[in-house]
Amino acid sequence: MPKVLAAPPDLNALTDEQLFQMRICDLNLHFHGTEMETWIWELYRELGFRKIRFRPECYLADEWMCPDREPVIGIPFFLAHPRLKKLEKKMVLEAEGELKDDFMSLIRHECGHAINYAYRLYRKEKWKAIFGDFFKEYPDTYVPHPYSRRYVRHLDNTYAQYHPDEDFAETFAVWLTPGSNWREEYQGWPALEKLEYVDALMAQIANREPAQRRGKKYYAAARMQKRLDSYYKKKKEDFAEELPGFYDPDLKRIFSEEAAHQKNESAAHFLWRKRKELINAVSRWTGRNKFATNKLLRQLIDTSTLQHLNLKNDETMTLLDVSSYMATRVMNYLFTGKFRVDHDKRIR
User: Fold this and answer.
1) 143 and 335 in contact (C-beta within 8 Å)?
2) Are both 97 and 219 inside the same structural domain?
3) How far is Cα 63 from Cα 65, in angstroms, rounded to an integer?
4) Which of 168, 164, 158, 165 shows the shortest CA–CA distance to 337?
5) What pLDDT sits at residue 313?
6) 80, 37 in Cβ contact below 8 A?
7) What average pLDDT does the segment 236-258 reach?
8) What is the mean pLDDT of residues 169-186?
9) Taking the complete model, does pTM exceed 0.85, yes or no?
């Protein structure tokens, strides 16, 4: 008798606990009928407008990626279903690429990698002279220089500075973005030379077939037998970076332990009440993921509780002080160069 296929699961009907027990490969996810499908076609139209014939194949993966020298684009599986986006935000406070503008910024960056690999542009001597050695090892850490004008600014965390391949992908993304007035925006910057080179390079490959059209789809969701609970356990471990402690003296400058302020709202309650505003603001301006920013905020709340601190100034001034303090803490951490990179994946 023919094998009867099981009906795809109704993810909306499952509790979080039931979802956690499911393997990612059993979620039956696809692009068809999703917002992502229209956004991917928008990317293809942008390439067509630039007369680039190659259309990188997109697939659902465990995160945003373009595998090393594989001209394909991996898009996080949780973006394929509203229920999974909700779970992602519950677990790590954000679903990267959920909004269209963010999605397009990220996919243009990954497209830059895919174009680089498909046409093997990294082999060109001038590419190497402009961007550096493609085969240079990815560093375990790097210290960003946010005010450097040698690199374009596209994704957060001055990502172009991380590696020559990232520098090219970021430059390509700026060049590809519709309405990008990059010649004026980067006038007088050394980065303009890179943009002009990409512009000339794309003219060279216009209407040409790529040297490599297909690539291996690493970490494809359709083959991932990991359960969602294991996926989030690992993701939280990766996101929960060690952030600096010893906040007591700093918090005592913002809040008060004096008897005159004991009737005021507690610092811990204030920080908890304003947590969404603080996390959103600090993450937006520092580029750190919300999960790590939330970890820092919880440490501040715990310290404030132990020290029995209370408000001493009005809310507006205190909110400004706390957000500035958190942003400074995060940026100081970034400048220590403590970025963790999963080299096992070798994802560009």
Assistant:
1) yes
2) yes
3) 6
4) 158
5) 87
6) no
7) 74
8) 97
9) no
